[in-house]
Design goal:
The structure is a homodimer of 347-residue chains.
Chain A lengths: L6 H8 L3 H8 L7 H13 L6 H8 L4 E6 L5 H16 L3 E6 L4 H12 L5 E4 L3 H6 L3 H8 L4 E4 L9 E5 L1 H14 L5 E6 L4 H16 L9 E4 L7 H13 L4 E4 L2 H13 L9 E5 L3 H5 L5 E4 L2 H17 L9 E4 L2 E3 L11
Parallel strand pairs in A: 1-2, 1-3, 3-4, 4-5, 5-11, 6-7, 6-8, 8-9, 9-10
Antiparallel strand pairs in A: 10-12
The structure holds a DNA duplex (16 and 16 nucleotides).
Chain lengths: 347, 347
Amino acid sequence: MRRKLTLKLIAQELDVSISTVSKALRDSPEISEETREKIKAYAKKYNYKPNNIALSLKNRKTNTIGVIIPQIVHHFFTTVIRGIEMTAREHNYNVIICLSNNDFDKEVINMELLANGSTDGFILSVSKETMLKEDYHHINEVVEQGMPVVMFDRVVEGIACDRVLIDDKAGAKKGVMHLLKTGCRKIGILTSHDYNSVARLRTEGYIEALNDAGVAINEDLILKLDNIDECGEDCHKRIKEFVENNELDGIFTVNELFAVAAARYIQEEGKTIPEDISIVCFTDGNLSQHFIPSLTTVSQHGEEMGRKAAEILINKLQRDEEDEDYSTTYIDTSLIQRESTHTLKNR
Amino acid sequence: MRRKLTLKLIAQELDVSISTVSKALRDSPEISEETREKIKAYAKKYNYKPNNIALSLKNRKTNTIGVIIPQIVHHFFTTVIRGIEMTAREHNYNVIICLSNNDFDKEVINMELLANGSTDGFILSVSKETMLKEDYHHINEVVEQGMPVVMFDRVVEGIACDRVLIDDKAGAKKGVMHLLKTGCRKIGILTSHDYNSVARLRTEGYIEALNDAGVAINEDLILKLDNIDECGEDCHKRIKEFVENNELDGIFTVNELFAVAAARYIQEEGKTIPEDISIVCFTDGNLSQHFIPSLTTVSQHGEEMGRKAAEILINKLQRDEEDEDYSTTYIDTSLIQRESTHTLKNR
DNA sequence: TTGTAGGCGTTATCAA
DNA sequence: TTGATAACGCCTACAA
């Protein structure tokens, strides 16, 4: 079989019209039992499958959700995707994923590409560069064309779309409170600059937890690194100095990488975790689970987040009269206690 | 702007025919300077973008590459995807990614889905379940329809397609030789069952390295775990026993997870790495880099692999007369020395 | 220089 | 019960 089978080819072969074939295959009662069977048998034998492209064109909808994310290395994004895919499949939607690699231009290209017919709507987490530039024209354009958009995790103000967020502030607070409960008082935080919505909220949670506990905020104990997605040489150096120059008994970090770097320099100083310094970090990924000591983390329930985002989007897609109300949903976090903090009886 | 702009709409608005608009926008010399400018100005003003779906249908090609992989958590797959995307973009192809989650049914569904018009060709790494079942009908179907397929990493015999492989055997050999060179003699291997092509080849490399060095193979030192993608409870237990019951001075593992698990039980026994036992593992990911001690690894050059796979596929797509010759390309590995092995002067 | 017609693969409407 | 026709959005050979 060289070329894909089409209705036309079947029609020619069986000497009927195209529309007869179409109807027969869709079990139309218009067609006589006999011809219907004949056509279906032929289609089955030669494995006919309708061409999705033609269907999309005809129906003006693709039944496909476009997902645009900065990176895929993140365990977190992986779980979100899984959630999206599960819900999508349940509702007979397909998912296509594009990576922006935290690059503004790529984000724009990808969105335009998918917006030109490949997709009915978007689920997206904006790239670092986009946040820095504060240029959202590509997202707004898509919205203006009537395609629903759901932003998750790394969201941005001023766009007419739904939002699904980790409750970053509450999560961070939960983590820092755990440190406090297990006896830490000199707690530092490794975070990132405030343009990153996620980092900012987590820093706020840290501050709030300390405030609630009546522990004074010491600006020296707040280290804002340049990038929340990696930890390069310079980042390592700053963490090293931070650990060496401050008398800490606890550290909260906004990602795993910072936590692991801190652990390294803590141990190099001859201190042990959690005896001398406890660690709690955000994101329950590979590293947290397998590091020695394994890390107490604030887990993000990415799968639930993905499910929720997909649900909202599909919902919007299905009742196409468009309402102008946009929701913001918060997804809870939970604390996973492991070896990097003192054990606590009550939970 | 509610509905997307089409040629038809522009034509109505400017009171010309559709084909005039089409030609003008494609800079046809047939159209007078004047109307051309007028049309282009209008299109630009209202941000006209051709509908990809319509183009695909017309041209019977999508300019899209479908990528199907088992998992995305793997750092390795991430780098492969990056390579694919880079090359694809250079040649004006788009990439759409689908995850099989190591699930046979999902692999089949995804392939059928993409094959029905969404994609011109495939780059795929088969799922664990598919390898187990040895059922490749979905891949063969796609091939028979004339869509080129490039398999990478987890490949399978008996399919008419190109292949891009890590030289797993040579890589493993390289890793084990490093252990030998740094003085290890009682070297164990943590690997997976032979149905996994990758695991099998790495095991062979291990054996060959020992043979070459004149070290006798001891079957007790070869542990075949059930799954190469994760390391669950049972897996951990078996690794623990393996480490405790054997007098080892070196361990080679086919992935990071096994290495990290081994490290844990080695240290629990009061031994240190690399002083008492050295470790080398396959896959240069997050864990290897950040673990303490950081792990000496066999790095897979995933990006190069992705580039190569994409190049081969695009090449096939572009000269559409189909030749029946299929290539197998091996991608080299390299050894990255870190803290988990003794240092070696020469490299 | 501009417009008409046909086709890519489907489906829906209406006519035979 | 079956078939012809138009339409989805685009492109192109050919006619005007």
